[in-house]
Structure formats: C-alpha cells, structure tokens
Amino acid sequence: MKTRLLILAASLPLAGCISFGAKPPPSLLTLEATAAPAVGAEQNSAKTRSITIQVPSTPTSIAGARVPVQATPTTIAYVKDAQWAEPPARLFARLLSDAVSARSNMVVLSTVQSISDPSATLTGELRRFGLDATARDAVVTYDAALTRAGGDTVEKRRFEARVPVSAIDATNAGTALSQAANRVAGDVAAWVAAR
C-alpha cells in the first residue's frame, strides 16, 4: 500500500507536464460559398455539359490545417490560433464545385459518377492560400488545367485574388481568405463555362 502511494505521489507532478497534442484553437476556420446550387434544383448531365473537379495539389506550406503568412519572399510563418477545419485544398475544391455548378450551367460530377459520363475534367494546383504580411493581403492563387470532354489537350490558366486584411490574426485571415477564394472560384466558373 505504501509503495502504491509513493508511486502515485511521484507521478502527480508529471501529470501537469504531459500533453498528447497541441491545444486546439477556440474555433476552426472554413469557407463560406457566395454561389451555390439552389436547394432542390435538379441537374441532368444528359441535358447539359458535365465536369469533374479534382481536389487541387498544394505545396507543403498549405497542405496542412495551419494558415501560412508569407513574412518575406523567402520565409513563411503561421497565423497564431488559426486552423482550418479540413485541408484548404478540399475546402477550395468544394467551393469551386459550388461556384461552377451555380454559375456555369454545368453538372459537377464526382470521380465515380464521371466513369459512365464523358465529362470535362478540371485539375490544378492551389499555389497560395494564406496571408502576405508585406502587402497585408489574403492571397489565393490557383493554376487551373481544363481538359474538355472527349479531348486530349489541356488548357491552363492562372487565377489570383487578393483581399486586404487589417490585422494578421485568425478572424481576419478566415474572412479575407473566404472572400478571395470565392473571387477565384467565380473567375474559374466563368472561364470553364466559356470553354
């Protein structure tokens, strides 16, 4: 009994030192779509063009949940207490799908759905998705690559949007990046619809 008490007493000071992960931020960031398909709206790929939108590739600096800040041309930091609810590439792909579906009169199909439907394919790289400390902007840069249905050539175009931020913090980062992402998604939707 005495031995157990000694072991328990010895381990108490360590209990406050042990951590199984970083303390989560008070809230997680996500993107709010400004254009999305109407609830209950029916779409049919037999009556209109269809497209498959892939989750874009990303550099390592934006592949995770943290929000990067380009401090200088060659250094990156991260916004304190700012963390995405899921990887930015997935958030952006979903936002892009909503924008294309709502603004281009195209049916957006999943990869599985496109197997039996000859759809166009939109792929790309999300090059920047963070803050620029020197310009005090939120920056979203997306390099799009479009292959038309039944085609074997690729059309590429770079899209970028910048939204000013008053402070480099979690609240301003989330709002400004959502606005910038929506601008890029709208521009991509207009480009895809014209193709």
From TrEMBL:
Keywords: Signal. The keyword Transcription regulation does not apply. The keyword Metal-binding does not apply. Residues 31-189 form the ABC-type transport auxiliary lipoprotein component domain. Transmembrane segments: none annotated. It comes from the Bacteria. Residues 1-22 form the signal peptide. InterPro entries: ABC_trans_aux. This is ABC-type transport auxiliary lipoprotein component domain-containing protein.
